[in-house]
Amino acid sequence: MSIATQTPQQVLETVFGYPAFRGEQQAIIEHVVGGGDALVLMPTGGGKSLCYQIPALVREGVGVVISPLIALMKDQVDALAAVGARAEFLNSTQSPDERRRVEQALLAGEVDLLYLAPERVTVPATGQLLDRLNVALFAIDEAHCVSQWGHDFRPDYLALSMLHERWPSIPRIALTATATQATADEIVARLDLGAARRFTASFDRPNIQYRIEAKNQPVQQLLQLIRSEHPGDAGIVYCLSRASVEKTATALAEQGIPALPYHAGLDARVRADHQSRFLREEGIVMVATIAFGMGIDKPDVRFVAHLDLPKSVEGYYQETGRAGRDGLPSTAWLAYGLQDVVQLRQMMDRNEGDAAYKRRQSQLLDAMLALCETVECRRVQLLAYFGQSLGVDRCGNCDTCLAPPESWDGTVPAQKLLSTVVRLDRERRQRYGAGQLIDILTGKRTPRVEQLGHDSLSTFGIGDDLNDQEWRGVVRQLLAQGLLAVHGDGYGTLVITEASAAVLKGEREVRLRREPKRAPRSSRRSAP
Ligand code: ADP
Ligand code: ZN
Hints:
Elements: H1 8-14, H2 25-33, E1 38-41, H3 48-58, E2 62-66, H4 70-82, E3 87-90, H5 96-107, E4 113-116, H6 118-121, H7 124-132, E5 135-140, H8 155-158, H9 161-166, E6 172-176, H10 181-191, E7 197-200, E8 208-214, H11 218-229, E9 234-238, H12 242-254, E10 259-262, H13 268-280, E11 285-288, E12 301-306, H14 313-320, E13 330-336, H15 338-350, H16 355-373, H17 378-385, H18 399-402, E14 407-409, H19 411-427, H20 434-441, H21 447-451, H22 468-480, E15 484-486, E16 494-496, H23 500-504, E17 511-513
Parallel strand pairs: 1-6, 1-7, 2-4, 2-5, 3-4, 5-6, 8-13, 9-11, 9-12, 10-11, 12-13
Antiparallel strand pairs: 14-17, 15-16
The structure holds adenosine-5'-diphosphate (ADP) and zinc ion.
């Protein structure tokens, strides 16, 4: 029986070898097979590919898949060929001869699925080619790339609105694992999908254990995580900069962990080699910037670690979502510190972009900080960010559920700290970061303290009831709560905010989260 005369259920079984659809796959597929437009929001690993692959096979003609993941097209086409589907791709890595061969096959009606790089869509020759084909559907994968606010913005995606203008009768299905209302609305607006039916899957990933802890000695903390809970496991470690990627990969390798670096500054061949080793070998730890990961289909990534704070909850969710696609217990672990906040705020200040853009970036960071500092269930808060509810107050599989953090009254320490900031600000001679503040509060007569006469400030030594690390926690949490801010001077100087006044006047209580002394142990690797 030819594929084209089969039902979606039959294609699922005979071509892909699966007995049943998952979640909303069937409804989505039937809608698209029937010629409707669809917007599909489904988490990583949820099974988005079948949602366009099966309609492409069932409907007559070729299904055209727009995907930004050029490096993965060959793998995707090979995987489809392995199950007997006729797939091809067209992108800039091909020779003209190769492209001509694909075009011949398309014109001969010998292709079920065509993967197309977004930058090829606007090439006139592509339009002429598509005009001559019987196109079954357009699938726009990683549709959030159209969002200019997002971290994966691809300018070529903006041109995809022309698909509908030029071929209005061909159904479109846009898919993404980015779930915020704002992103979904932007996709609808930019791709003209107002009439599309929206399918939203639950974004809960119950097998991922979310944990966020204070960053002290990040590499040591990471080693502890790997050795005690994930020895020999494959994992991804995200760092903000190329330099810290290199440094961390080297440090892990020196400790006998098979770690490889990945960032945009590496030679393309090195990157491709590291990626393929990560995919094919067991137990590789990829240390990477966020340049790595989109579209990587490795089911058994057991942990995703962040050594620097992601810029948004969306980014955090995407990156952690690469753990545990196989549904088995996995860890999402983030170490975050005061310096992260200062650094990200400075990066935002330096960023090009208008005031609205900066405000928006700052709001995204605030939401990420709120997730870090919450005493509530991380999963509940994460899902709430995407407008979803878990139906219970506590998930039982995140650090705050496993070891509920205590909160304490930090009003007095906050007042001590804020009044020191005010006193230093009055001097107006120099600007000071957190280190100098903490030295003053804890009464340390460092050369700098003595030289600047800070030991004669009335707040000198009034905070010696807390140690340096505890003070750093206070500063970090005040930053997260908007009771302190980073000045735009490029030096990381801390300044008070409008909201600080109420604290200084004793009109507002400050609740702080007490950092657990020891990270909670994962529940899965209990003693034999
Ligand atoms: P996404 O693109 O949403 O991240 P994929 O389409 O790559 O997810 O699917 C994730 C994994 O789940 C793949 O290994 C895929 O083969 C598998 N999968 C998808 N749908 C089903 C199904 N109905 N039954 C069994 N496995 C499925
Ligand atoms: Zn929880």
